[in-house]
Amino acid sequence: MLELEARPLTPEAFAPFGEVIDTRIADYFHINAGRTRRYHDLARVETLGEKARALISIFVSQPVEVPLTLDFLERHPQGSQAFVPMHEERFLVVVAPPGERIDPESVRAFVTDGRQGVNYRAGTWHAIQSVLEREGEFLVVDRGGEGNNCDEYPIDIRVTLPGHEAVASSDTEFEERQ
Ligand SMILES: NC(=O)N[C@@H](O)C(=O)O
Ligand code: NI
């Protein structure tokens, strides 16, 4: 079992896996007569293969328990996949670099702060959507089209939060204890 403590997500640490989507670290320009700031081109949408097209979807996810135990990571070889929280939901991000095999030493776990989204570049191994604390609603941009776009890789991983062991109680509220 690979044991990981999630680290706060940063663009630098996430760079091998894709982009962090966050207006606080992005440039913008004004449009609409100055009424709107356009945070432009924050992440690279990849749609590869036959009849490929970009999809916009919304995921409504139930919260995961922490420690989070995983028995696989997945990848989308034909496209990127972005998750943007719609109500400042925090979520766990577990990733490994693209490749045919996963080196356990290369797996990284992060926790977002509610203002961050992520875009997994095509082929990046990742855990499925893992929202914390409450039901989460995410805008998702990924690839539709022909052919397989989801591979799974068996690997056992246990992820904890920094310095806390949080457990789900019966009503899915989380108590954090030292
Ligand atoms: N299967 C699906 O659409 N979602 C996963 O790819 C995920 O990363 O949550
Ligand atoms: Ni995915």
What percent of residues are in strands?
over 45%
Rg, please? 17 Å
- CATH superfamily name? Ureidoglycolate hydrolase
Kindly report the average pLDDT value.
93
Structural class designation:
mainly beta
Q: What is the CATH fold-level name?
A: Jelly Rolls
Organism: Halomonas caseinilytica
Protein name: Ureidoglycolate lyase
InterPro entries: RmlC_Cupin_sf, UAH_cupin, Ureidogly_lyase, Ureidogly_lyase_bac, Ureidoglycolate_lyase_dom_sf
EC number: 4.3.2.3
Provide an overview of this structure.
Residues 166-178 have low confidence and may be disordered. The chain has one domain: Ureidoglycolate hydrolase (Jelly Rolls). Helix content is 2%, strand content 47%. The protein has one helix at residues 11-14; strands at residues 2-5, 7-8, 18-21, 29-31, 36-38, 53-61, 68-75, 81-85, 91-96, 108-111, 117-120, 125-126, 130-131, 136-144, 151-160, 165-168, 174-177. The chain has one helix and 17 strands. The longest helix is centred in the N-terminal third of the chain and has 4 residues, at 11-14. With 178 residues, the chain is an all-beta fold. The site of nickel (II) ion has 4 residues, from loops.
Summarize the structure.
By secondary structure, the chain is an all-beta fold. The chain has one helix and 17 strands. Pfam families: Ureidogly_lyase (PF04115).
List the helices and strands and how they pair.
Elements lengths: L1 E4 L1 E2 L2 H4 L3 E4 L7 E3 L4 E3 L14 E9 L6 E8 L5 E5 L5 E6 L11 E4 L5 E4 L4 E2 L3 E2 L4 E9 L6 E10 L4 E4 L5 E4 L1
Parallel strand pairs: 1-15, 2-10
Antiparallel strand pairs: 3-11, 4-5, 6-14, 7-15, 8-11, 8-14, 9-10, 9-12, 9-13, 16-17
Nickel (II) ion (NI) binds next to loops.
